[in-house]
Structures are given as C-alpha cells and as structure tokens.
Amino acid sequence: MKAIVYQQYGPPEVLHVAEVEKPTPTAEDVLIRVRAVEATKTDCEFRSFKLPVKWTWLPLRLATGITKPRQPILGMYFAGEIETVGSAVTSYKPGDTIFGCTGFDRGAYAEYVCLPESATLVPMPHNMSFAEAAAIPLGALNALHYMRRANIQPGEQVLITGAGGSIGNYAVQIAKAFGAEVTGVDGPHKRAMVMKLGADHYIDYTKTDFLQMDQSYDVIFDMVTSTPYSKCLQRLNPNGRYLLGNPRFFKMLRSAITTRFTDKTVLFAFAGETEAELHALKEMIEAGQLVAPLDGVYTMTQAAEAHHRVETEQRVGVVVLQIGD
Ligand SMILES: NC(=O)c1ccc[n+]([C@@H]2O[C@H](COP(=O)([O-])OP(=O)(O)OC[C@H]3O[C@@H](n4cnc5c(N)ncnc54)[C@H](OP(=O)(O)O)[C@@H]3O)[C@@H](O)[C@H]2O)c1
C-alpha cells in the first residue's frame, strides 16, 4: 500500500510517499481503508521534534525513537471505510464508513490502518464528506469535553480565546448549540470564519484587549497560554468558570486554590477522546449544529505543503490530507 512516511526527524520535506507493507488484522481488529486524515500541529511536532514544552523532549523522544522515528507513519484523526474485519469483530462490517482516532499509535497517513474494534470509531455522519469528517475528531472532541465541563446554561455569556484555532472553532459552535451568547477572540484574518461559525461578537486581539473591556462572562475558555490568570478571573461573573484549554504548570497549581477558596471554578482536563463523545458529535453534525471548517485538502504527494501550512500558522480552518485517489 502507499503511505506518507518519514524516516528522519526534520522539516516538512522529510515526508514522502512510499510503498509499505499493508497491515494484517487479527481476530479483534478492523482493517480501515483511510480516505482522509487531518494534518495536525501534533503531527508536525512528531515530525520536526520541535516541541512547545521543552521538558517533554526526552520522554517523548524515548517513546518515539531516539535517532529516527520508530513509527514512520503519522496521522491520528481520520475518516474511511471498513475494508475487512477480524473473526471476533461484531460491531462493524466491510463497507461501513467511519471516522475516529488511532490514539498514540498513529499510522493514518496511509491507505490502510489496522485498529482494534475497541478503538474510538463511530459511523460517519451522513451529511459529511470524508475530508470534513476527518477534520472533526481532534478539535471537536477537545471542544466538547471542555464545553460540557463548563456546564453552560442557555443565555450565559461565553468568551473563547483562540476562537479561530483548531479547538476554538468547534468550541464556538458547541457553545452556541448549548444556548450561550458567544464572543470569539482571535486575529483579524479569522474574524469572517468565526462569525460564520455562529459567534455573536468578535474581538480582534491585535487591536483590543478583552481584559481591558467592561464586559464580564460566565465562562472563559482560554486556549492562549499567555493570558494573565488573575485578570481573567476578574472578567468572570459570580460563579464563573475559567477553562484552561492550554494549561501551564503554575496556572494548574493556582486553579485548585481558586476553585477551593472563591466562587469561581478553574478547570483543565485533557479530552478522553471517547466513542460516546464522538457519537454525540455525530448527532450534532446530523442535526446541523456543527460543521467542519476546512482550510484546504491536499493530496498525498502534497503532504510537505500541508505541514508547511499548519506550522506557519497560516491556516484558517482545518488542513486535511486526502488519502488514495
Ligand atoms: N487541553 C487539551 O485537551 C488540548 C488538546 C490539544 C491541544 N491543546 C493545546 O491548545 C492550544 C491551542 O490549540 P489549537 O490547536 O486550537 O491551536 P491553534 O489552532 O494554533 O489556535 C490558536 C489560536 O489562538 C490565536 N491566538 C494567538 N494569540 C492570541 C491571543 N492573544 N488572543 C486570542 N487568540 C490568540 C491564534 O491566532 P494567530 O493565528 O493570530 O496566532 C490561533 O488562531 C495548543 O497550544 C495545543 O497544544 C490542548
């Protein structure tokens, strides 16, 4: 089968299409014909090994391969069709269209990926293309996880920083679906997309600091590490919730004290990427509450271009690789 592989850590150009062995399912596995896969920031980090949190370098390098990548095929979030199923598999049959996550094993930048039946796999929404469905799991699972934890009530004021980012653009839609009045904060080039996704208000962070404005919020979902913690709490209404989407160590420590001793709650948690959550997203998509904003769809031979697009922060929406013809 064909796969986009990398044999060494480095710039996007280390990615190339190669012929590799097709995986063979065991009795408990499904073999999936991958049709589309998201090109994520995490894929770029696995490829380049330039990590935003420096102390993670050694443990991650030990896990992924010291001198060269142990798993040469990236890709964690995908959509495709079940090709064959192992003898013990009962939930899927050949021809079923599904979307889901590979977890840390990766391998979805390839024509076929083999996963246990228990992996996070859900029938694809009937109103989405493969490319759109592949753009859902990463951003929308994380967004749903946080928006549910915030226990948003209809009519509440929700502010989302990084609203045009890969998690923020789903958080905007989910908060709207929960009945909130949503303010998105991001750069000027993302305004049109965030408003189209349903935001009621938009603040361009390059011109206006929302922390200096009079408005206060019931929920602040903060994807930006540099947002000052105390000032953010001051912008919360009584019983407000501050969600740290991109938590740093000291903010995590302070969160316990704030939650214990004030009327505000500070939350952080990494999404479990469960099948139940992906099912909930499928229902929202089919109900017309959630769309996948695509920045662009690239072929397998354009993988390096797709990675450039992601890591130079030019994308407005999700970057997807189409796998196969
Ligand atoms: N908690 C979790 O479960 C979880 C899961 C995955 C990832 N993360 C982390 O969460 C972070 C965000 O993820 P993402 O994938 O959504 O990132 P992303 O796609 O890069 O989005 C970040 C957005 O924030 C904008 N931004 C930058 N500075 C800002 C500011 N001062 N105010 C408002 N917006 C600002 C960026 O705009 P520009 O284009 O102008 O820079 C960009 O649109 C990442 O660092 C990631 O590591 C957390």
Percent of residues in β-strands: 25-35%
- Report on the biggest sheet: 7 strands, mixed
Q: What compounds sit in this structure?
A: NADP nicotinamide-adenine-dinucleotide phosphate
DSSP summary: helix tally = 10
Q: Return the average pLDDT rounded to an integer.
A: 95
- Going by CATH, what is the homologous superfamily of the largest domain? Medium-chain alcohol dehydrogenases, catalytic domain
CATH architecture verdict of the largest domain: Alpha-Beta Complex
Shape category: globular
- As a whole number of angstroms, the C-alpha radius of gyration is 20 Å
- Low-confidence runs: none
Give the proportion of residues in helices. 25-40%
Can you identify the CATH class of the largest domain?
Alpha Beta
- The SSE string, one letter per element, is EEEHHEEEEHHEHEHEEHEHEHEHE
Number of strands: 15
**Structural class, from secondary structure content?**
alpha/beta
CATH fold descriptor of the largest domain: Quinone Oxidoreductase, Chain A, domain 1
Instruction: Tally the structural domains.
Output: 2
- How far apart the termini lie comes to 12 Å
Question: How would you sum up this structure, described in words?
Answer:
The strands form three sheets. Strands 3, 4, 5, 6, 7, 14 and 15 form a seven-stranded mixed β-sheet that branches. Strands 10-9-8-11-12-13 form a six-stranded parallel β-sheet. It has a two-stranded antiparallel ribbon with strand order 1-2. Helix 8 links the parallel strand 12 and strand 13. It has helices at residues 41-48, 57-64, 130-134, 137-149, 168-177, 191-196, 229-234, 249-261, 275-286, 303-311; strands spanning 2-5, 16-19, 29-38, 77-85, 97-101, 112-116, 121-123, 157-161, 181-186, 201-204, 217-222, 236-244, 265-267, 294-298, 318-322. The chain has ten helices and 15 strands. The protein is α/β, with parallel strands linked by helices and 325 residues long. The protein has two domains: 2-136 and 292-322, Quinone Oxidoreductase, Chain A, domain 1, CATH 3.90.180.10; 139-267, 3-Layer(aba) Sandwich (Rossmann fold). The model has no long low-confidence stretch (mean pLDDT 95). Helix 4 (137-149) packs across helix 5. Helix content is 28%, strand content 26%.
